[in-house]
Specification:
The chain is an alpha/beta fold. The protein has a 7-stranded mixed β-sheet with strand order 1-7-6-2-5-4-3. About 40% of the residues are buried.
Length: about 160
């Protein structure tokens, strides 16, 4: 199952992130993995910022390009935001020691998941952002039963 959404500007991308947080509320207790793809500057981190605002987090949300993972441990959910752009080889992901992050009650957002190869858990939902005119086109693809439920709540 897949759906598309056009984001004319940054505000629309942030708003979609907030709606995504709401759609995740029911799935969080089972753990969710979301892969975010798109070129540099496509809006992946902006989408993450919107999602964090949807979870009522008001601090800074930056791309974890150098730290590789940014944890957000909130009262209602734990969110782990990964950026694997700087990985040299997929095995580096395994060395991070993050397997405990991919459990129930956690949302894992992974930018550049392909760089982690087979070491990165499969996505429940994949969101690809590509330039489209002055904005971005978002392609959302559900890859699991959880992902289908999230996508249904996201677009209904």
């Amino acid at each position: 199952m897949q759906r598309e959404k056009y984001f004319p500007d940054e505000a629309a991308t942030l708003a979609f992130g907030r709606v995504l947080a709401s759609a995740l509320e029911q799935a969080v207790r089972f753990g969710v993995v979301i892969h975010l793809t798109g070129d540099l500057g496509a809006g992946k981190t902006t989408l993450c910022r919107g999602l964090m605002r949807g979870f009522r987090y008001h601090g800074p949300v930056k791309s974890p390009t150098y730290t590789l993972v940014e944890p957000y441990e909130l009262s209602n959910v734990n969110v782990y935001h990964f950026d694997l752009y700087r990985l040299s080889v997929p095995e580096e992901f395994e060395y991070l020691g993050v397997e405990d992050y991919f459990t129930a009650d956690n949302v894992c957002l992974i930018e550049w998941a392909s760089r982690g190869g087979a070491f990165v858990p499969k996505a429940d939902l994949e969101i690809e952002l590509v330039s489209a005119g002055d904005g971005r086109q978002g392609l959302c693809v559900a890859s699991s039963k959880k992902g289908h439920g999230i996508l249904k709540r996201l677009f209904d």
